[in-house]
Description:
The protein has helices at residues 7-23, 47-50, 57-69, 87-96, 132-146, and strands at 30-35, 38-44, 77-83, 100-105, 125-128. By secondary structure, it is an alpha/beta fold. Strand 1 and strand 2 form a beta hairpin. It has five helices and five strands, in the order αββααβαββα. Helix 1 packs parallel to helix 5 (132-146). The longest helix has 17 residues, at 7-23.
Amino acid sequence: MIEPFNDEYFMKQALQEAYKALEKDEVPIGAVIVSNQSIVGRAHNLTEQLNDVTAHAEMLAITATANALGGKYLNNCTLYVTMEPCTMCAGALNWSQITKIVFGASDEKRGAQRLTENIFHPKTEIIGGVLAQECSQIVKDFFKGKR
Length: 147
């Protein structure tokens, strides 16, 4: 049996957001937040366009989802993001009490999992590597074009 709404399906939705960021010459990272198999928040990086270092895809998706759900806690929600969250985003995700985080590519330099102390909420399930090749390639190509 084919499960249409699985981690790969939702990561592809996050990749669509990353391509929107790429079109705006932003670092191509995208995110969607899912509740009950439905996307309730979506975003992509807008740090350059908004001139705001906090305008990461995850941060914007948290805000969009909180507004859509009418509350600050994201219980029973899953974040799909194309790149491992940084420490800033991990802290915000901790405070949101999100249930699950699924990321594509690991961030060797700034990813939150590089910390010696776990910054994620203790009850949050973390899964990495979903469509990792596709998620990392778009970022590599972006920075290769900048050099």
